Amino acid sequence: MNVAILGVGTVGSEVANILIENKKLISARSGVKIVPLIGVVRNLNKQRNCKIPLSDDLNSVIDRNDIDVFVELMGGVEQPYRIINRILKKQKAVVTANKALLAYHRYSLQSLAGNTPFGFEASVAGGIPIIKALREGLSANKILKITGIMNGTSNYILTNMAQNGENFDIVLKKAQDLGYAEADPAFDIGGFDAAHKLLILASIAYGVHGNPEDILIEGIENITQEDIYFAKEFEFVIKLLTIAKRIDDENVELRVHPALVPQDKMLANVGGVMNAVSVYGDCVGETLFYGPGAGGKATASAVISDLIDIARGTKSPMLGYKMQNEIHQMKLLPACEIMTKYYLRLKVEDKKGVLAKITNIMSENNISIDSFLQKPKAKEESDVTLFFTTHTSFEKDIQNVIEILNTQSYLKQKVAMIRIEE
């Protein structure tokens, strides 16, 4: 089985090298020789740790008749979509690690692929085989909930803030120096990378349509050491979570945001750059998948697992449904209708009656307080920091309360809010 690799960067180089170095093992498991025949790059003069011939002529490679599978590792959305369109129309198999492409075009690609193999295990959580788990291992289950830590950059930052007491900006710079964060880290720390992965998993679990713009996405850039202080006081850990939750037979909620997670939960103990995905099925209960969510070798491992499946003749439907029209596609619950518990941080004037005013605003707007903490202040400080947690409330009500509080004269900073996921 001959393979062309479109995009020979870190991951593409590892795919080629592993196929060569482990060829006997891979052949034994797949039943055929999987040969990385050629790679396509933009710049032939760039040094690469790669042992296969390279070309900068994409069109000529796509038109070759001796290629059986194309591995797309270019990145981007619209250009790879057009390229994969051409390949699928030739009824040639495709493997991709491109989560952004799938977040926007997964259903049209499924329609184009038909019975042509299309693998995308590497698009979610790197080396963790979560796509196969949902599509195959858990296929007898109604998926009740998926909760994941699926961005290693954000998890590294939050872990270090909690362990070392350092502020966000300092830890972000450290992550960039170590290569865990890009020079422009907005895609990771803003929650967008995790949201793309969540949409892919939700398509397999629930048949739900939707683009990143349709779901609640918040990043970690506003997390402070005061939030870390509260989390420790009340035995929580702050994590950037991806959450898909089946509400009923009609609706599913999808959201990505920082969350306070109880310290005794398995996800609370996932540190550093590692990823983990917790899946609740109605038959099996909770299962947890843990491992490296990024990196050349881990992602290449997932790419090659798809190549082996194709070589074996495995014909799993792309999104897990052989009869897509026979299932009821669930709808996205509007973000305002989400219900959960909340944490609020307020910096206010240290004056009599302020606390009563705050609690009255909450009470008048359907927010019930669960716990309250006032952070000790230094003698020279004239303001005080208050922490609240709420009972389960509607997102629309908490947003209304925040909007009202932000207009009050005694408030010294805008209200900070983090959702609580127990």
UniProtKB/TrEMBL annotation:
It comes from the Bacteria. The active site is at 197 (proton donor). One of its GO terms (biological process) is threonine biosynthetic process. It is an enzyme of class 1 (oxidoreductase). CDD domains: ACT_HSDH-Hom (cd04881). Keywords: Amino-acid biosynthesis, Methionine biosynthesis, NADP, Oxidoreductase, Threonine biosynthesis. Coiled coil: none annotated. It holds the Pfam family Homoserine_dh. NADP(+) binds at residues 6-13. It catalyses: L-homoserine + NADP(+) = L-aspartate 4-semialdehyde + NADPH + H(+). L-homoserine binds at residue 182. Residues 343-422 form the ACT domain. PROSITE patterns: ACT, HOMOSER_DHGENASE. The keyword Plastid does not apply. NADPH binds at residue 99. GO terms for molecular function: homoserine dehydrogenase activity; NADP binding. Its EC number is 1.1.1.3. Belongs to the homoserine dehydrogenase family. This is Homoserine dehydrogenase. It comes from Campylobacter hominis (strain ATCC BAA-381 / DSM 21671 / CCUG 45161 / LMG 19568 / NCTC 13146 / CH001A). The lineage of its organism: Bacteria, Pseudomonadati, Campylobacterota, Epsilonproteobacteria, Campylobacterales.
